[in-house]
Amino acid sequence: VGPEITKNDLVGAYCSLLKDPEAEVRAAAASKLKDFCNNLPADTREQIIMSQILPCVKDMVGDMNQHVKSALASVIMGLSPILGKDNTLEHLLPLFLNQLKDDYPEVRLNIISNLECINEVIGVRQLSQSLLPAIVELASDAKWRVRLGIIEYMPLLAGQLGPEFFDEKLSSLCMSWLTDHVFAIREAATNNLKKLVEKFGRDWAQNTVIPKVIQLARDQNYLYRMTCLFAINVLAEPCGQEVTQRMMLPTVITLVSDPVANVRFNVAKTLHRIYPVLDSSVLASHVKPALDKLSQDGDHDVQYFASEALEKVIEAL
């Protein structure tokens, strides 16, 4: 409809919808905040947002309805690039920090999941002091889906915070997820480690991640010994041949004689997965004998996976 009608009629109509007595209407209006503001006429965009839309948004941050707050939290970060650094610091940052302390985990999660927008404008370090307590709290939330959401944003956060800051504040959190009681969390945690190693490099992996992963192989709980194997599966490729052979392979080989059949057949699957990374002399001296032993195992599943892996290893020799 063009800039005039937008300015004179649509902005007022949109603000009314943001204040609608029905929560569903407010939530629907809130979810369109970023799109609506992006499409305002460029020459008056900032002025319209600051004078008419932002006051409504400030009220919505304290809305009684969690769906309204959640919808707002998923898009509010998108105002940062439109309003620029000074306005973000002065007007938006206090709103983000408020939302990071919200009672509803979905609201906090939606803010954290949209950090890229604000990082481009003010840098995540401005947020980090307020951000970390919220992340730590969400990381141990009783709802496993909330914990899962946080894990998925870890690599993004890691890239923005850098290795020193990350190690100091968040690396122990990432390792604690490997022993979560929900399998989906443990699985996501191993994939998360792979992404972190790709971001921070092999030296970081050797010092920070691998020693803690190897420690799980000695855990009393067989599920955690299996998590150790799952982690080695995904870490072998980004860590490369030398690190895999020196630090991780010996641990896999020790689990060949694990008392639990589930662990033993996962040893066979792990050797199947990581053999392309290994040197042929190591395949002959360590991997083949281990698989030979497993293919004679008393458990049919262990025999099956060991024979499958052995075939591939013999081809590679």
TrEMBL record:
Alphabetical list of InterPro entries matching this protein: ARM-like (IPR011989), ARM-type_fold (IPR016024), HEAT (IPR000357), HEAT_type_2 (IPR021133), PP2A/SF3B1-like_HEAT (IPR054573), PP2A_Regulatory_Subunit_A (IPR051023)
Pfam family for this entry, one: HEAT_2
Signal peptide coordinates: none
One GO term describing the cellular component: cytosol
GO molecular function: protein phosphatase regulator activity
Protein's UniProt keywords contain Transcription regulation: no
HEAT repeat spans: 10-47, 53-91, 92-130, 131-169, 209-247, 248-286, 287-317
Record keywords: Repeat
Ranges of residues in domain Phosphatase PP2A regulatory subunit A/Splicing factor 3B subunit 1-like HEAT repeat: 3-84
Family: Belongs to the phosphatase 2A regulatory subunit A family.
Name this protein carries in UniProt: Phosphatase PP2A regulatory subunit A/Splicing factor 3B subunit 1-like HEAT repeat domain-containing protein
